[in-house]
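Complex record, two chains
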Amino acid sequence: MFDLLERTIVAEHGEDAWDDLLATTGLTGAYTSLGSYPDDHFHRLVDEAGAAFDMSPEDVIRWFGRRALLLLAASYPEFFTPHASTRPFLLTLNDIIHPEVRKVYPGADVPWFDIDSSDSGVLVMGYGSDRRLCSFAEGLITGAADFYAEDVSIDQPICMLRGDPACSLVVHLG
Amino acid sequence: MVRNGTANGTAARTQAAEIDRLRRRLERERLARREAEAIAERTTRGLYDEVAARTRELECIVDMGRELAQSLDDRGFADLIASHIARAVGFDECGIFTWDKVGDSVVTAGYHPAARRSALIDVYPLEDYPETRRVLMSGQLSITDPADPTADQSEVSFLIGMGGKLMFQLPMNVGGRTIGTVELISLSGQKLSDRQIDLAHSMASEAGVMLENARLYAQVRHQAFHDHLTGLPNRALLGDRMEHALARGRAPKLPLVGLVFVDVDDFKVINDSLGHEVGDRALVAIAQRLQSLVRSGDTVARFSGDEFAILVEDLESPEEAHLAARRVVRAFQKPLAVAGRDVTVSVSVGVDVGNALSTTPEDLVRNADFAMYIAKASGKSQHEVYQAAARAAADDGAKMRSDLRGAVGRGELRLHYQPIIELRSGRIRSFEALIRWQHPERGLLSPAAFIPTAEATGAIIAIGDWVLETACTQLRAWQEIEPELAVSVNLSGSQLHDGHVVEHVASILERTGLDPRTLILEMTETILVADPGAELVLRELQNLGVRLAIDDFGTGYASISYLRRFAVDILKIDREFTDAVDTAQGTALLGGITQLGRSLGLELVAEGIERPRQAELVRNAGCDLGQGFLFARPAPPEEAAALLRPGGLPIQASSITS
């Protein structure tokens, strides 16, 4: 997560921007993909980036997710190439992608989505992690649609950030 | 400050600041690298430890499985499971309990250490142990800690009774069913980690499968070796026990073993009159009574249907087994209580005794069974001791039966002919056809050696047909020389009873063109008296024109009424009278019979004439015809034909003085 954030910011805003973020937040920034770091670090970095780029923290996270997905697709094409579109790719999250993530990063805290695929045009993805990173999920889903060159819109009729007990990501693809 | 971090700002920075920035970046990378290395080391070590622990656990399960598979029928099977689980989780004691749903209890199956097993009772009612019941019903782990005031008190007292400080109860699951519990007891208060609990669970499930298998195996084995109805050992187990009983000990101290074979008399009557259900219950009652007669080491087995066998081992003497046989017969003098009523049964019992040198299990069974048949044949409610001589005779009979079946087809039967002479002229009036069997191993056999067997097995019909056919064909050939010649053929009771003889005789007469008057059918009085249906058959035979003779007259009933009723043509007077003819009384008797015969218009033949004097006396008594060694012995057809030539008979009528 942190190294993805670093790569995303460096790619978009340059190395100095990441240096500056670390300096402002007072974090050492020695993040490796193998480790797990406090959520607080992530939110401090996001908040500071929002201030620097004039975005809301949710928008930063959404933006980060969307870009991060493309980085992931470049690093791990084997999870992407078997599918021709976003929907079947998303359906492999719980059973294939996240278990693989846990193998490589034993400390990784990946969520489980309660996916309702009964409607062929819409995927409803329930999300209930305490980390409340539904925006990151939105960003990743949008990034996936970018990868498969599809249009996507995501509604959240209920959302933990608005005080609901869980989030529901309603994904329209097409 | 971030806002100032732009390309323009960078250009304005001093070189020193830039170096400082790069140094910090380098430092950050160095830190990240060290951390990554540390994480990699930790992860690798963790994975290694995990693999090692998992391997150890799997080894525990595999070791247990392997050892259990080798001791599937051991009594200490569950003890073995307990010891494996205790060792795997490093616990002092472990108990295996199976759930008896019907009895609403758990049954102690095994314990580790086995020596402590005596501290347990066999059955724990679940009524008294609600916590154990909860484990069984819910499939959830239970921990009993006496220090916990909410702990279930019955479990606590069990635990304290075992001298333990902490107890874990795990359900033993087999394919989604709970079949019992595993109880791990710590004497020191040591706790189980989640990992240990998981391992104990896995082992308990594995063991549960084996325990189920062992139970099924024992059940199947019991079913394979026991009779369903009576629960007694079956024939297979009896054979096994006989084998063992004979194999124990060493010469010269070979153990003496007896087999008492018991057959219920007329069991079919019980089944037929009281129904099969009562019949079955009677068999159970019989089994129980037999069981009550034997010592604990002896085996009562259900041999088949209504046959039982008792194996008596370590006999002091054969008489002991004979006494046992008598005891069995007597034990059934009192009626059995069957389905609320008294049922009286009797048994026939045979017994045989032997040791490893003198017998085999198969011989014991065969001999005791044979003795039982002798007992049954001599009346019910008897016992009989096996005798080798009786067996030998019966064995001969059995071989004879099987040999006889194919004798006609193999062409082993022969007819010999003995002439019947006109005593006055010395002319041959007729031949009696007498059967012989050219047995491939035993030589030429006389009818006495095989006809009773042929009668008993029904082979007599085919043999009788053959005799008629052969004798008539022969006669037709001889009549070319001696047109008046007749032949007499013996008819058996079975042939008369069978009735098909009429048709057969008719077809032979037609085929050979024989004058029916020249065919004489001989039969004994006994046959006529024994078979009321014979009269009709004889009439039909007479209608064909053949003549009838009574053989061996005077030895049976000598009834005058049937002589008239059956319109007999010829009387053959038994050799007994010929033998006695040189006494005054004998002469008078023979005279009486010939007068009777003459008055009925019968021809009379004296049998068994061996001496010229007898021939003379017989003729003087009024008998016209004679047969016996004096004239000729029964001979093969070619020798008999020679007798027909002039001077063929060794003794001439002229030598019989008057």
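Note: Chain A touches chain B through 21 residues (CB under 8 Å).
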